[in-house]
Design a protein that fits this description.
The protein is an alpha/beta fold. It folds into two domains: about 1-130 and about 305-325, Nucleotidyltransferase, domain 5 (2-Layer Sandwich); about 145-305, Nucleotidyltransferase, domain 5 (2-Layer Sandwich), CATH 3.30.420. It has eleven helices and eleven strands. Helix 3 links the parallel strand 4 and strand 5 (about 115). It is globular and about 65 Å long. Bound molecules: 5'-O-[(R)-(carboxyoxy)(hydroxy)phosphoryl]adenosine and zinc ion.
C-alpha cells in the first residue's frame, strides 16, 4: 500500500516528555536513523519527570541529537523533504523546544513542517522497520489498537490510515502511570515499568489476588483501585512487621494489569471484526504483556520493536508521512491544533 504513496524522507523531532529524539525515516516506514537522548538518570533523582529540568535538557540535547540523526543516516538537510515534530500532548516547556527547533530548521532549509500528535505517533511505530531489513507486513485494517503509555490507556478501532474511533480509555490512572506509582510504593526506582518488570520476573504472580476492574459493558479501564489495593497490602504486611515480598507483589500487580488489558483488547477485536491487533506505547515494552498477546493465536499482533515502544522520533516521522501524503496536514501546520480526534 505504501508503494502507491510518493517517496519522501522526513527528519522528525520528539521532545514531549523526558526523551530528546530525532530520526530520519523514508516513506513512513524505512528507518535510516533514530537517536534518543534519555534524561532518565537525571529525573530518577526526583522519582519522576521534573518539567523545568526536562525543558533545559531538551535545549542542550536537541541540536546534537538532530546532527547525530543526520550523520548516522549519511544525509544532510538538503536530502530531507520535510521536517516533522511532536505538537502535543506533552509537557508545554518540553514541546516548545522541539517545535521551535523544527520551525527554525524548516524555515532555514525551506522545507515543509508537519505537526504530529504524540499518540498517533505511538500507533505508527508499528509501521516502522530498519533500513536494510526486509519490509515486514503492514498492519491490516480494520484493527484494534491498544495504546498503553505513561499518560494514556485507550482502545481504538482503526479502520484506515488516520481514521480512528476511540472505544474506551482509562477513567483514572494510565497503565504506565499505575506501574510508576506502584513502583514508588514498592520503593523501586523510576521509571517504574521496567523496575516492576524486573522484580516480577523473580516473583509469583498468583501470591496476591489483586482486584481486576473489568468496567463491564465498556472498553474503559480503571487502575486506581488496583494501586490502592497494593498500598493496603503493603501497609498490612508492614504492620505485621514482615519484609515486603517485592517480587511477588510486583508480579501479582503486573498480572492484574495484563489480564485486564488483554481481555478487553481481545473482546474489542472480536466485537469489531478486527483483522489484527496493534499494541503501542511505553507499556508495550513489557515482556510479560508481549508474551501474553503473542501467545494467543486468534489475531495477528503487531508490537513495535522494544526501542520504538517508548518515546522516539521514528514514530513521529512515520505518522507525519501518512498525514502528509494523505493531504491531512497543511504546510507549516504549527498554528493548527494537533490533528488527533482522540485527544
Ligand atoms: O510511551 P512512553 O515512553 O511515554 C508516554 O508517552 O507516556 O511511556 C512511558 C511509560 C512509563 O509509565 C513507563 O513506566 C512505562 O511506559 N514502561 C513500562 C515498561 N517500559 C516503560 N511499563 C511496563 N513495563 C515496561 N517494560
Ligand atoms: Zn509517549
Amino acid at each position: 500500500m505504501t508503494a502507491s504513496f510518493p517517496s519522501a524522507r522526513i527528519l522528525a523531532l520528539e521532545t514531549s516528555c523526558d526523551e530528546t529524539a530525532a530520526a530520519i525515516i523514508e516513506n513512513g516506514r524505512i528507518l535510516h536513523s533514530s537517536i534518543v537522548a534519555s534524561q532518565m538518570e537525571i529525573h530518577a533523582r526526583y522519582g519522576g519527570v521534573f518539567p523545568e529540568v526536562a525543558s533545559r535538557q531538551h535545549v542542550l540535547s536537541v541540536m546534537p541529537v538532530v546532527e547525530q540523526a543526520l550523520a548516522q543516516a549519511h544525509l544532510t538537510l538538503n536530502d530531507i523533504d520535510a521536517i516533522a515534530v511532536t505538537q502535543g500532548p506533552g509537557l508545554a516547556g518540553s514541546l516548545v523546544v522541539g517545535i521551535n527547533t523544527a520551525k527554525g530548521l524548516a524555515l532555514g532549509a525551506n522545507k515543509p513542517l508537519i505537526g504530529v500528535n504524540h499518540l498517533e505517533g505511538h500507533l505508527y511505530s508499528a509501521w516502522v522497520y530498519n533500513a536494510g531489513e526486509a519490509a515486514p507486513p503492514e498492519p491490516q485494517f480494520p484493527l484494534i489498537a491498544l495504546l498503553v503509555s505513561g499518560g494514556h490507556t485507550e482502545i481504538n478501532l482503526m479502520t484506515d490510515h488516520l481514521t480512528y474511533q476511540r472505544l474506551g480509555s482509562t477513567q483514572d490512572d494510565a497503565a504506565g502511570e499505575a506501574f510508576d506509582k506502584v513502583a514508588r510504593l514498592l520503593e523501586l526506582p523510576y521509571p517504574g515499568g521496567p523496575a516492576i518488570q524486573r522484580a516480577a520476573e523473580e516473583g509469583d504472580s498468583t501470591r496476591f489476588n489483586f482486584p481486576r476492574s473489568w468496567m463491564d459493558g465498556t472498553y474503559n479501564f480503571s487502575f486506581s483501585g488496583l494501586k490502592t489495593s497494593v498500598l493496603y497490602e503493603t501497609q498490612e504486611l508492614k504492620k505485621k512487621g514482615k519484609n515486603l515480598p517485592i517480587p511477588d507483589l510486583a508480579a501479582s500487580f503486573q498480572q492484574a494489569v495484563i489480564d485486564v488489558l488483554f481481555k478487553k483488547t481481545i473482546q474489542a477485536a472480536r466485537a469489531y471484526g478486527a483483522k489484527e491487533i496493534l499494541i503501542a506505547g511505553g507499556v508495550s515494552a513489557n515482556r510479560a504483556l508481549r508474551q501474553t498477546f503473542k501467545a494467543q493465536t486468534e489475531f495477528p499482533v503487531h508490537i513495535p520493536a522494544f526501542s520504538l515502544c517508548t518515546d522516539n522520533a521514528a514514530m513521529i516521522g512515520s505518522a507525519a508521512y501518512f498525514r502528509w501524503v494523505k493531504g491531512q496536514v497543511s504546510e507549516l501546520s504549527l498554528d493548527a491544533r494537533p490533528t488527533w480526534p482522540l485527544a
